[in-house]
Design a protein that fits this description.
Layout lengths: L8 E3 L2 E3 L3 E3 L14 H11 L5 E8 L11 E2 L3 H17 L4 E6 L27 E2 L13 E2 L2 H20 L4 E6 L4 H6 L14 H18 L6 E6 L10 H13 L5 E4 L17 H11 L3 E4 L5 H9 L5 E4 L1 H5 L3 H9 L30
This protein binds flavin mononucleotide.
Flavin mononucleotide (FMN) binds next to strand 4 and helix 9.
């Protein structure tokens, strides 16, 4: 049996052993943006699980671009040093390629962590003033963010560039720009959150302008051999909002700018969204974008079973799949998938004795001797 999910794939000069990505997942466990021991334990466990690509959580490009005070950052020398310690330890024991999701929270910044309720932290309670394309709050009950002026646009674009340069210094293998889930770049795209009257608002062309400028500016400094993808929300799930046809147009423009993948998520822009999640409910977005824009796509969202993931890739609906909650629940999901699909993965030699009867062949190059 040859599994499509376990076929290697190359993104520029980055070679992945299979088509499974750990989806980026905020851990809210940083201090002033600095990665902590938690990140080493969390990413360490996931890096041993045999995935093709491990994407580090949304990482803010400036301090006010953090969703919560606990979000990771890559905007200061201290942030870079904390990342270096983390990556040095990870690299010593795992060769799993690492991507980082670079992000700016926009109007969803200055939030409490989910386990503290997730609501906006008011300025007088230690929060900060979020910025956005327009002074429109996420929810009508909240104070509006500050509308970005020309200086903000330049500063934020440059912040993405500087974070990408730091990622390059750190030897990170790939970047995913976060243009989904109602964060800054998504709010430029959606007509519901972008009401600007300058060159960055109004027509689709204008709404795409800032995200495309950020993409191109990052691409310019990011090493040619390394891939740069984008996560989008392919639909706001709100009448009159951002939708699949606009996503396809955006994907075509990104492709022309050199984009290596579209990671097709959805939603997160505003509370009025009407979503009915179900198994693989976002796969049709990855499929439609792949077909219409001719760009590699990653399907994500309630992909939980190995055969389900296999079918998505085998049918050409997406080039890769990403799993988030399923990987937290079962960090060795890929091993089970390899057993079920008759495939092989690389595993750390310390774990070579793990496979149960019937799954003995899942570890490539494994050999166990004893006296
Ligand atoms: C704990 C947690 C943190 C998340 N953080 C991020 C993030 O940093 N960036 C992002 O794009 N999506 C984030 N997501 C969304 C996931 O990447 C994924 O798209 C979503 O959970 C659907 O996939 P799943 O059904 O496999 O969990 C997060 C999800 C979870 C559960």
């Amino acid at each position: 049996m040859t599994s499509a999910l376990f076929q290697p794939i190359s993104l520029r000069e980055l070679h992945l052993q299979n088509r499974i990505m750990v989806s980026p997942m905020c851990q809210y466990s940083a201090t002033d943006g600095d990665a902590s021991d938690w990140h080493l334990i969390h990413l360490g466990q996931l890096a041993l699980g045999g995935v093709g690509l491990l994407c580090i959580e949304a990482t803010a490009v400036e301090a006010i671009g953090r969703i919560t005070p606990g979000c990771l950052g890559l905007y200061s020398d201290d942030n870079e040093s904390a990342f270096r310690r983390l990556l040095t330890a990870l690299r010593r024991h795992a060769d799993t390629p690492l991507a980082i999701q670079l992000a700016h929270a926009g109007r969803k910044a200055s939030s409490h962590t989910p386990w503290d309720g997730g609501k906006l932290i008011a300025a007088q309670a230690g929060g900060w003033e979020p910025i956005a394309p327009s002074a429109l709050p996420f929810s009508p009950s909240e104070p509006p963010p500050r509308e970005m002026n020309a200086t903000d646009l330049v500063r934020v674009r440059e912040a993405f560039v500087h974070a990408a340069q730091r990622a390059a210094h750190l030897g990170i293998d790939a970047i995913e720009l976060h243009a989904a889930h109602g964060y800054l770049l998504h709010t430029f795209l959606s007509p519901l959150s972008n009401r600007r009257s300058d060159a960055y608002g109004g027509s689709l062309e204008n709404r795409m302008r800032f995200p495309l400028e950020v993409y191109s500016a990052v691409r310019e400094v990011w090493p040619e051999a390394k891939p740069l993808g984008v996560r989008i929300s392919a639909s706001d799930w709100i009448e009159g909002g951002w939708d699949l046809p606009q996503s396809i147009e955006f994907a075509q423009r990104l492709k022309a700018a050199g984009c290596d993948w579209i990671d097709a998520s959805s939603g997160g822009l505003a509370p009025e969204q009407k979503i009915t999640p179900g198994p693989g409910f976002q796969v049709p977005f990855a499929e439609a974008i792949r077909k219409a824009a001719g760009i590699p796509t990653i399907a994500v969202g309630l992909i939980t079973a190995p055969q389900q993931a296999e079918d998505i890739v085998a049918a050409g609906r997406a080039d890769m799949v990403a799993l988030a909650r399923g990987m937290l629940y079962e960090p060795h999901w890929v091993w089970r998938a390899a057993a079920e699909l008759g495939a092989q993965v690389r595993a750390p030699k310390q774990y070579w004795r793990a496979p149960p009867r019937g799954a003995e062949a899942i570890f490539r190059d494994a050999k166990v001797g004893q006296r």
